[in-house]
Amino acid sequence: MLGSTRESIASAHSIVVKIGSSALTSLVAGLDTHRLDLLADAIEARMRAGSDVVVVSSGAVGAGLAPLGLTKRPRDLATKQAAASVGQLALAHAWGTSFARYGRTVGQVLLTADDIARRTQHRNAQRTLDRLRALHAVAIVNENDTVATTELRFGDNDRLAALVAHLVGADALILLSDVDGLYDGDPRKGDATLIPEVNSPEDLDGVVAGSGGALGTGGMASKLSAARLAADSGVPVLLAAASDAAQALSGADVGTAFAPRPTRLSARRFWVRHAADTSGDLHLDEGAVRAVVSKRRSLLSAGIVGVSGDFHAGDVVSLMGPGEKPVARGVVAFDAAEIEEILGRSTADLPADMQRPVVHADDLVAL
Ligand SMILES: Nc1ncnc2c1ncn2[C@@H]1O[C@H](COP(=O)(O)OP(=O)(O)O)[C@@H](O)[C@H]1O
Ligand SMILES: N[C@@H](CCC(=O)OP(=O)(O)O)C(=O)O
Question: Which of 51, 56, 157, 329: CA 20 to 30 A from 16?
Answer without folding.
Answer: 329
